[in-house]
Write a structure and sequence with these properties.
The protein is an all-beta fold. It has one helix at residues 253-258; strands spanning 3-10, 16-20, 23-28, 33-41, 44-46, 65-66, 88-96, 99-106, 113-122, 127-136, 139-141, 143-150, 156-159, 166-169, 175-178, 190-191, 204-208, 215-222, 227-234, 240-246, 261-268, 282-284, 289-300, 308-314, 317-322, 328-331. The longest helix is centred in the C-terminal third of the chain and has 6 residues, at 253-258.
Length: 339
């Protein structure tokens, strides 16, 4: 298979486009943001991520580092000079006939750690593979992995098994227990409309993966584009799932409905409530390397489906099950989460 190494150790002055047959994205090295992610499906393009700056429901806490999605670059401690305007350096971009992979390094070392990132697309497969490595450094390091999606109304959220009880954090920072079953449909999906609060305010809902869960997932069934956007992660490295719905226009109800955003954040960070509501920070050390892997994908929504019941891996296949009808099967790199 032919390959071309296109870039090596370069600072970019503009966004970088990565494309293969049936999939394309742009990467902004200054924000660390993936945007304009598109997957071909029959006669249309699926666009899972919102391209504009969304009103952030889950802005990472001080000291957190934010990666990917429609992401806002690295979040470090406020006032830390190293976190202001530091771009990602393109180490290499390798293109073949049916795949493209970009390798990047953050232009500073938060808490002394080297941060590397890889984005990968495969031809005619609606998946974006993302990997991050944190090597060396010292201290505790929380990580959040956010993505923003545009909603329309009647959208549903489906989740992999979670521990009993969720936490809702309001705009005032206070946390309270929440039973997500109160918002569930008969098919087990969570209705997102009740979380669309007046005035554009956003309440962040926090869940933790069930004990023994290996592959964790979140799926959003969007009524407008009739698609399913899903996120995959290793439940051990990113055990926390957070979400919130917010409106983009606080004083205009009609505009708010048009600009409703869902913020999805996969994370490793503690909760103020402690106990089983979160996970500790990553512990950085000079001889230690942490690997974090994540996938964003999108498929057309099967007409009969009212919920996503399960997503799992079977050798080189990713299998998505609805509440009825045949599953959707996609090719998948079998070693991605096992490496």
């Amino acid at each position: 298979m032919l390959s071309r190494r296109l870039l090596w150790g370069q600072h970019l002055d503009e966004s970088l486009t990565m494309a293969v047959p049936g999939a394309t994205l742009k990467f902004d090295p200054f924000q660390g943001a993936v945007f304009d992610l598109r997957f071909a499906s029959d006669d249309r393009w699926l666009t899972p991520l919102e391209d504009s700056d969304a009103p952030g429901p889950d802005r990472p806490a001080p000291g957190a580092w934010s990666v990917a999605g429609r992401a806002e670059g690295p979040f470090l401690r406020p006032g830390d000079a190293a976190s202001q305007g530091i771009p990602w350096i393109v180490e290499e971009l390798v293109q073949t006939r049916n795949a493209v992979a970009g390798r990047f390094t953050l232009g500073c070392r938060p808490k002394g750690a080297r941060v590397e990132r890889e984005l990968c697309l495969h031809g005619n497969v609606p998946l974006l593979y993302q990997s991050h490595w944190l090597s060396g450094g010292r201290g505790r390091f929380p990580v959040t992995h956010p993505a923003f999606l545009r909603l329309s109304g009647g959208d549903l959220l489906c989740l992999s098994p979670k521990r009993p009880g969720a936490i809702a954090r309001g705009a005032d920072g206070r946390e309270r227990d929440l039973d997500l079953a109160e918002f569930a449909t008969g098919e087990g999906a969570i209705q997102l409309d009740p979380f669309d609060l007046p005035g554009g305010a956003a309440t962040c809902i926090r869940c933790v993966e069930a004990t023994g869960q290996a592959l964790a997932w979140t799926a959003v069934m969007r009524a407008g584009p009739q698609d399913i956007v899903f996120l995959l992660k290793d439940a051990t490295s990113l055990p926390v799932t957070m979400f919130s719905v917010s409106a983009g226009a606080r004083d205009d109800p009609a505009a708010s409905r048009r600009n409703r955003m869902l913020g999805l954040t996969d994370a490793r960070c503690p909760s103020r409530k402690g106990g089983g509501h979160g996970a500790g920070h990553l512990e950085l050390a000079p001889d230690r390397c942490h690997m974090i892997r994540h996938v964003i994908g999108a498929i057309p929504r099967p007409a009969a489906w009212r919920s996503v019941r399960d997503i799992h891996l079977d050798e080189a296949s990713l299998i998505i099950h609805g509440d009825r009808g045949a599953p959707v099967v996609l090719p998948f790199e079998p070693e991605f989460f096992a490496a």
